[in-house]
Design brief:
This protein is mainly α. It is about 80% helix and about 0% strand. It is built from eleven helices and no strands. Helix 6 crosses helix 8 (about 170-200) and helix 7 (about 160-165) runs antiparallel to helix 8 (about 170-200). The longest helix is centred in the C-terminal third of the chain and has 42 residues, at about 230-270. It is globular, with a radius of gyration of 23 Å. The protein starts with a helix and ends with a helix.
């Protein structure tokens, strides 16, 4: 019975991965087609990639999108980590639950509502729509994600570490930099990469707050798709997929490095004892 359940589980995983990856492979495959549509594959060519790299507007939008993702994820990681520390240090349980509920509301709220709210907010403050409005919006909706990635690491940390540091006369800054941050580092890194992913993926919020000629890839692709899909978009999808794979590989190596580092520390502690 257990063997049968295991086989069904593997079959289910295979089907799910096929459903996820077949459309991506199909999309990238046609970026190498000599044709102009995705109806028939007419032979191998790199023409569409050449057209993409010759499209200065698309390249500028691609760089702007990456810049927005990196800046917003950096700031949201810093603010989200500080927020997680503040929530973790909250002594009263009902205050902690209230803060977490307010944080979770931003995660479950529809993107259309969040985007419209940002639009009304920026319009009321007479903030021009463009690079800064998109950056501030991305930082705002990424902070709750980072907080939820970091907070479990803080909850897992033993209070005895902080107490021992205080007994040894460590300052707040020393405790934070030498004990707390190294312990929650995996959560911070995970939050950073999740923030990048959400920024690159976002359309609804960005659609509301773009302006003054500024755009991101998601908004630009939507605008061009209304005029008819070009295989140049397929070539762009291929490049973005490779970029995403690079992010995953970097995150994988960082996690492995941290895991091996912790194992070495545990061995040294056991040997020292």
């Amino acid at each position: 019975m257990a063997n049968r359940s295991s086989k069904l589980g593997r079959l289910y995983i295979i089907i799910v991965f096929l459903l996820l990856y077949i459309p991506i492979v199909y999309l990238i495959l046609y970026s190498f087609s000599k044709g102009t549509t995705m109806t028939n594959f007419n032979g191998f060519t790199l023409t569409h990639y050449g057209e993409l790299f010759a499209d200065k507007r698309m390249l500028a939008i691609f760089l702007d999108t990456i810049l927005i993702a990196l800046l917003s994820s950096t700031f949201s990681t810093i603010i989200g980590t500080m927020g997680a520390l503040a929530v973790n240090n909250t002594k009263r349980q009902h205050q902690r639950e209230t803060l977490l509920s307010l944080n979770n509301i931003l995660l479950v709220s529809p993107d259309v509502i969040i985007g419209a709210s940002f639009l009304i907010f920026f319009t009321a403050l007479k903030v021009p729509l463009g690079f800064w409005s998109v950056l501030l919006s991305h930082i705002a909706f990424e902070i709750p994600i980072v907080l939820l990635m970091v907070l479990p690491r803080l909850d897992e940390m033993s209070p005895s570490l902080i107490n021992a540091a205080n007994d040894l006369g460590a300052t707040t800054g020393q405790t934070l930099s030498r004990i707390v941050l190294p312990v929650i580092q995996p959560g911070i890194i995970a939050g950073f990469f999740m923030a990048i992913t959400y920024s690159l993926d976002d359309f609804a919020v960005t659609f509301f707050v773009t302006g003054n000629g500024f755009s991101t890839l998601s908004v630009e692709i939507y605008s061009r798709a209304r005029q008819g899909i070009s295989l140049e978009i397929n070539a762009l999808a291929g490049i973005m997929f490779i970029f995403s794979l690079i992010l995953v590989v970097v995150y994988y190596f960082i996690e492995n490095h941290n895991a091996s580092k912790l194992k070495k520390q545990d061995k040294l502690e056991v040997t020292g004892k």
